From TrEMBL:
A GO MF term: transaminase activity
Entry protein name: Aspartate aminotransferase family protein
Species per Swiss-Prot/TrEMBL record: Flagellimonas hadalis
Pfam family, one: Aminotran_3
Cofactors required: pyridoxal 5'-phosphate
């Protein structure tokens, strides 16, 4: 049997990794400045992370959500304190798409309505409702198009007010920093306007923090740069440092009932151990502040490269925009300089999404290679 051929692959076969260093099957070392789509938040095979999972594996790896799980309860308490979101409750699942699927489902239950407002160039996942709110017709099958979604431009106050004032909307879903879309952001004024109008119209505000959460932006959640409080927050990617895990934080004003949401694998013992390890390392190594500081340092380095026309994003969710498409540049960085970077829907944007415990020296190495690759 062959693999279903849906991924364009670089000719690199990683076999081991530590920190931001990755080795392939030929013994070549690479520096990982992409973290597998911002998943590696505390570095590959961090010793505390490995020990946490090993210790849990020796006790119990999995049981369903039909029994008490103290590891899940410990994670909820730790996450509430670390994020400043103690007035939320936690529902765990397995991925970012599933997190957004459950967030949209909760919004529909809560309001009794079905329509959704999303934004142009958004990406919220590939499952049914999540992909319907993703602004990419190529990955929406006819079955997904049964969902009623209105796509609006970012930072257009008039268009947003006109849409949300009409009937039938259950939710607004928004990335504080668009990931796949290319690091565009709502202004603080626009995000606050969205929050205000959602409250006025009884519409649920969903903050998609799947990629921008867990310290990546220089705050625990990227919406915290804007002084608003969403109704539901979706999380995944950096949450488990590579272990498949996701979840939603649901404001305590929402009513739970038995059977409302459910999952077989979500919140299992191993997933919770991995997620606890991430939170512990974020705290012990002060990585949220490190992301903020190194984001500023990255910008100072970028200012010295004349080919860069714009720096986008915050913290270590950041990108470099050029006046040319970057596909060949990415190949040079991989094959000539042994560095992983990322792309976006904006073909002229190079994305930089490393582990949050990188150093200034790592950034210096990246810019040395970048300047060579640009020659």
């Amino acid at each position: 049997m062959k693999l279903f051929d849906v991924y364009p692959l670089y000719d690199v076969t990683p076999v081991s990794a530590k920190g931001i260093e990755v080795w392939d099957d030929k013994g070549q070392k690479y520096l990982d400045f992409y973290g597998g789509h911002a998943v590696i938040s505390i570095g590959h095979t961090h010793p505390h992370y490995v020990k946490r999972i090993e210790d849990q594996l020796e006790k119990i790896a999995f049981y369903s959500n039909s029994v008490q799980n103290p590891v899940q309860e410990a994670l909820a308490e730790k996450l509430g304190k670390a994020s400043g979101c103690e007035n939320y409750t936690l529902f765990m699942c397995n991925s970012g798409a599933e997190a957004n699927e459950n967030a949209l489902k909760m919004a529909s239950f809560h309001t009794g309505k079905a329509k959704v407002i999303a934004f142009r160039n958004s990406f919220h996942g590939r499952t049914s409702a999540a992909v319907a709110t993703t602004d990419n017709p190529k990955i929406n099958a006819p079955i997904n198009l049964q969902q009623e979604v209105t796509f609006l431009p970012l930072n257009d106050f008039d268009a947003f007010e006109k849409a949300i004032s009409s009937e039938g909307y259950c939710a607004v879903i928004l990335e504080a920093i668009q990931g796949v879309g290319g690091l565009d952001e709502p202004t603080t004024e626009f995000y606050q306007f969205i929050a205000e109008k959602c409250k006025e119209n009884g519409v649920v505000l969903i903050a998609d923090e799947v990629q921008s959460g867990y310290g990546r932006s220089g705050k625990f959640f990227a919406f915290q740069h804007h002084g608003i409080q969403p109704d539901i927050i979706s999380i995944a990617k950096g949450m488990g440092n590579g272990f498949p895990v996701g979840g939603i934080l649901i404001h305590e004003s929402f009513q739970a009932s038995y059977g409302l949401l459910g999952t077989t694998f979500g919140g299992n013992h191993l997933a919770c151990a991995a997620s606890l390890a991430v939170l512990e390392v974020l705290e012990d190594e002060n990585l949220v502040d490190n992301a903020a500081a190194l984001g500023l340092y990255f910008r100072t380095k970028a200012a010295a490269v004349p080919e860069i026309i714009r720096v986008k994003g915050r913290g270590l969710m950041i990108g470099l925009e050029f006046d040319f498409e970057v596909a060949d540049l990415r190949k040079k960085l991989i094959y000539d300089h042994y560095m992983f970077t990322g792309s976006a829907n904006n073909k002229k944007l190079l994305r930089f999404l490393p582990a949050l415990n990188i150093t200034k020296e790592h950034i210096d190495l990246f810019f040395e290679a970048l300047q060579k690759a640009l020659k």
